[in-house]
Amino acid sequence: MRDVGIVSFAQSNAARELRNEVEILLPVVKEAVKQSGLPRTEIDFTCSGSSDFLQGQPFAFVMALDGVGAWPPIKESHVEMDGAWALYEAWVKIQAGEAESALIYSFGKTSPGDLAEVLALQLDPYCATQLWPDADSVAGIQARLYLSRARKSERDLAEVAVRSRRDALDNPHAVAKGNFDAEKLLAEPYRTSPLRDHDCPTNSDGATALVIAAGDLARKLAKRPVWIRGIDHRIDPPALGVRDLTRAPSAELAAKKAGVGRDRIDFAELDAPYTHQELILREALGLGTDVRINPSGGSLCTRALFSCGLNRIGDAFARIACGEGDRAVAHATQGHCLQQNLVCVLEGE
Amino acid sequence: MSARAPFKAITTPVRLEYDFTAGQAATLFLRGLEKKKIIGASTGPGQPVLVPPRGADPRTSELAQEAVEVSDKGTVVTYSVIRVPSENIKFDLPYVCVNVLLDGAAIGFFHVLQNCPLDKVRIGMRVRAKWVSDDKLAPTVASIEYFEPIDEPDVPYEKIKENT
Questions:
Q1: In this complex, do B23 and A18 lie within 8 Å of one another by their Cβ atoms?
Q2: What is the pTM of this model?
């Protein structure tokens, strides 16, 4: 295995952007490239993650290249997935010896459509989508089962929200933040019981960009490169009745393959858009109560879908790069109810 | 019907509504159309004018947000005769769609050509926008009803080959 390290990271997040995706993305990519110290034209590979379903704009992912710089021609690829999977593709490319460096970016504009409805289209189009199982309702089903199986309460969920929003106060990019009282949150009405508004993600319009590089190049570029010590992604069946929704076996397996249990973990950045999903992931990844979860506030407070998973990896990188921890786990998810999961272990030089 | 007779089709309507985010550059363009102007954007003085603009100059990946008005006259750089009906199209078949290099612009502008016999359409011919009446002007490309030929000499291929 070649050493592959993250050398730079930039992001943008806002509740609702009046800029289009090109205008949001361009300064973010520019910033990540600038921070990397590598001229744009010397980056070997570019890989992105996004979905046109979010803004209802066909080929938005192609238009986004206007803001990335594709002239002179570049080697480029796109995944209809969170940018974390674009990072995986770039990592494989470097492992294969086909590139020494890569730019990874993702963007998600959640404000143009009704995201919970758009996500209903992820389910079986013949036997499920006609019922329009919007994402919040499906998450409610999962949360109900989880609370009952794990003997947890709605208060446990509210406490995840209170902690996340408090931590988000230190993150200038976080959208939902503040000091809240669990008691008061529990007095709010349900959205999709047992979930209340604070249990559901605050959607945002955002973009994330990272530059990664192999071994010595990464050491040359960054004061403290953050190595990807392990990275793996796995999938559970999409049909909601097929699997135990209270667990995330694919996250568990990905964590094992990525080497999460091999050494201590200082903190974790988990892409858990709903409060109960943080608890499911904590269990799947075997993270004890001593591991700090989502110091950034996480995807619960700021979810630019398709960007927020890569954003978790970027947040973990930034924390390690400035010395606030040495070894972290970062995670990204796709699909309903934590159906697909990517886990990576990051370690500072 | 036998319980095992296969279904050949089911109808599952899907409808999603979106609020389009024009962004800064396309907003300039759409606001222009309301005022009977075609506004493109460039990264700065003397730089290529992109119309309709999407925010960035793809050649340099710099923000292109500087408004530049271009002419509503231009040169046909390519065309196609359309013979396929569509309920979205209000023109009689066959009709011609064109890519017009507007005077002052760096890239072609897609629209429809009218008032021109099919065998007279050619690359290099000069055309001009026919606008809707002033009371119907709106922030949409439909504020231009179509393009039509004007009495100006053809532009030689050499001058437009970059755009063909």
A1: yes
A2: 0.94
